[in-house]
Amino acid sequence: MARRKKVYEGKAKILYEGPEPGTLIQYFKDDATAFNAQKVEVIEGKGVLNNRLSEFFMQGLNDIGVPTHFIRRINMREQLIRQVEMIPLEVVVRNSAAGSLSKRLGLEEGTPLPRPIVEFYFKDDKLGDPMVAEEHIIAFGWATQQDLDDVVALALRVNDFLSGVMMGVGIRLVDFKIEVGRIWDENDYQRIVVADEISPDSCRLWDVKTGQKLDKDVFRHDLGSLSDAYSEVARRLGVLPAATPVPVKPSLIN
Asked: ∠ CA 96-102-103 to the nearest 5 degrees?
């Protein structure tokens, strides 16, 4: 079957025209990137894992009334999604200190935060996705105050859902990133929805007992096999059937 027209290609996904107006096909690549694409590698099976994991999380959010762009999975690497007007922000929710927060404030990694903290980053690879305040976002017209209020409420609901799901399988949700966009219904009523993906690419996931990292930090800091880490998350969540041909290290199955 002929490939549909490509609309956009990012570091980890490709968007193609969808079968109906207002839809897109989102294809998950095997590419792994870190440090603003300064470190790049192709990891067999990564796209399959992220497609299935993102489906699991997005459908779960849809089921509890948190709106997302996800419609359905098409195959092992593709999803049918709604086309949304993206807000040029990365929305980060932190439950524990890690990564840039630890560096900025001198906090030991893993230190629990008094409450979840929501941060905003301007999505621009050339600028290194700089952190921005609500004042910047409103002043430059990226979103209104009402948009931001909706985004924060949405992000905290996602945090509650993901934290509970992960804790149920012995995984600590340290932090995560989402992207959001606008959808209008027939009455021209705007809704803010979760877009892009939710996967170990966009979360920090640590084993509750051992502290083992099960996210992209494995790739960033050469801590082992990224495929093994993501497969372990998928195994615990019951996302992938045993017959799925994704490389899995035997030690992580036992």
From this structure: 165
Q: What 3 state SS string does 10-38 have?
A: CCCEEEEECCCCCEEEEEECCEEEECCCC
In the chain (254 residues long), the average pLDDT of successive 10-residue segments reads: 80 95 96 84 95 98 98 97 97 97 96 98 95 98 97 98 98 98 84 97 97 96 95 94 46 32
CA dihedral 174, 240, 90, 225 (to 10 degrees): 70
Task: Give the CATH H-level superfamily of domain 86-207.
Answer: ATP-grasp fold, B domain (3.30.470.20)
CB 225 within 8 A of CB 99: no
> Domain 6-84+226-241 class?
alpha beta
Residue 150: in which H helix or E strand, if any?
Answer: helix 145-167
Confidence (pTM): 0.91
